Backbone:
C-alpha cells in the first residue's frame, strides 16, 4: 500500500453547513481520493461537497500537552455566556 | 417488423448489456484489491443493474405480453440474450476488468447522450438518468487505465495485455442492422457510426496518456445481439438465474 497513502475525508452535507470529518481512505492521488470518497462516503446522498486532505498534512496537538493546552480554560467560567436571563421570546438558542 | 417490435429488440440489447456487465462487476464484491475499490465496483454494478431494470421494464411494456424486467432477466436462456460479447467476458485480473469497462463506458456515454434526444419519451427519460451515471463510470475506468498503463512495469504490461486481448470484442458495439436502421431513421435509436467516431477519438487520447499502444486492426468477433454467445454466458446465467430456476416466483 506504499503507493496508496491515507487521506482524511470531509463531507459537507448541505449548503451552508461546514465540512465534517467522516473518516479516512487510501488513494494514490488527489483525484482518486475524491472518487473513492464519493464511492465510500456519499452512497446514500450524504453530501454536496467533498474535501480530501493527505493525513500526513494534518498537524495535530499532542495528547501529552492536554494539561497546558486545555486545562487553563476550565477555571474561567466567566467566558461562558451563562449569566444572562434570556427572554422567552428569543426561543431556543 | 413493426416499429414496436424493433424498439423491443433494441431495448433488450440495451438492457442485456447493462444486466450482464452489472452481474460481472458484482462478482468482484468481497474480492477487490482494496476496500475503496470494492465499494466503487459495487456502485457501478448497482448503477448498471438499475439501468437494466429500466430498459427491460420498458421492453416488457412495449411487448405487451404481461412479462416484466425480472422475467427477461431470469427466465431466458443464453440464446435469447442480446448483449454484446464484450460484457460477458470473465473479469480476469483487475486490468482486464478495467479494459472491458473502458471499452464499454467509451461506447455507453456517447450512446446515452444521443438517446437523451430520442423521439421515444421513455427511452429519452431512462437515458438522461443513466447518462450521468455512465459519465462517472468512464471517469473511473479511464483514470484506472491511465494509472495502470503509466504505472509500474508490471501494471503497464498487464494493462497492455488486457487492452489487446479484449480488442476483438469492440467491433460488435458499432455494428448496425435492420433493427437499428429502422429506429435510427425515426430518431428513436442512436446512430452507431457517430458513436464509433467519438469512441475512437477518446480511446486514442486515453491510451496515449496511459503510454499504451492502440491494438492493430484485426478481425472482430460478433454475434451477441443475435444470441450467438461465447461459452462464458451460460456459466454466468447458471449462477445469476439459479434462484428463479430452482424456486420459480420465490418470495420472502
Residues:
Amino acid at each position: 500500500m506504499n503507493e496508496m497513502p491515507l487521506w482524511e475525508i470531509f463531507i459537507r452535507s448541505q449548503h451552508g453547513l461546514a465540512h465534517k470529518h467522516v473518516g479516512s481512505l487510501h488513494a494514490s492521488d488527489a483525484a482518486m481520493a475524491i472518487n473513492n470518497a464519493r464511492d465510500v462516503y456519499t452512497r446514500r446522498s450524504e453530501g454536496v461537497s467533498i474535501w480530501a486532505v493527505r493525513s500526513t498534512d494534518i498537524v495535530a496537538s499532542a495528547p501529552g500537552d492536554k494539561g497546558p493546552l486545555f486545562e487553563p480554560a476550565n477555571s474561567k467560567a466567566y467566558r461562558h455566556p451563562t449569566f444572562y436571563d434570556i427572554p422567552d421570546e428569543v426561543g431556543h438558542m | 417488423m413493426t416499429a414496436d417490435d424493433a424498439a423491443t429488440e433494441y431495448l433488450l440489447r440495451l438492457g442485456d448489456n447493462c444486466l450482464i456487465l452489472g452481474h460481472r462487476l458484482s462478482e468482484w464484491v468481497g474480492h477487490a484489491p482494496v476496500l475503496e475499490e470494492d465499494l466503487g465496483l459495487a456502485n457501478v454494478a448497482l448503477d448498471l443493474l438499475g439501468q437494466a431494470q429500466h430498459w427491460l421494464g420498458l421492453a416488457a411494456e412495449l411487448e405487451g405480453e404481461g412479462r416484466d424486467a425480472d422475467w427477461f432477466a431470469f427466465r431466458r436462456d443464453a440464446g435469447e440474450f442480446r448483449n454484446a460479447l464484450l460484457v460477458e467476458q470473465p473479469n480476469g485480473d483487475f486490468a482486464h476488468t478495467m479494459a472491458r469497462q473502458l471499452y464499454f463506458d467509451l461506447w455507453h456515454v456517447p450512446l446515452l447522450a444521443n438517446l437523451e434526444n430520442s423521439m421515444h419519451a421513455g427511452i429519452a427519460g431512462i437515458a438522461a438518468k443513466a447518462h450521468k451515471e455512465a459519465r462517472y463510470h468512464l471517469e473511473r475506468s479511464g483514470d484506472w487505465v491511465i494509472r495502470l498503463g503509466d504505472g509500474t512495469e508490471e501494471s503497464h504490461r498487464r494493462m497492455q495485455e488486457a487492452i489487446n486481448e479484449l480488442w476483438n470484442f469492440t467491433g460488435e458495439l458499432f455494428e448496425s442492422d435492420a433493427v437499428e436502421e429502422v429506429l435510427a431513421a425515426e430518431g428513436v435509436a442512436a446512430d452507431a457510426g457517430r458513436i464509433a467516431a467519438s469512441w475512437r477519438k477518446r480511446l486514442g487520447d486515453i491510451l496515449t496518456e496511459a503510454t499504451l499502444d492502440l491494438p492493430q486492426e484485426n478481425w472482430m468477433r460478433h454475434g451477441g445481439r443475435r444470441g450467438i454467445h461465447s461459452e462464458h454466458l451460460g456459466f454466468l446465467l447458471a449462477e445469476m438465474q439459479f434462484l428463479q430456476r430452482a424456486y420459480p416466483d420465490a418470495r420472502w
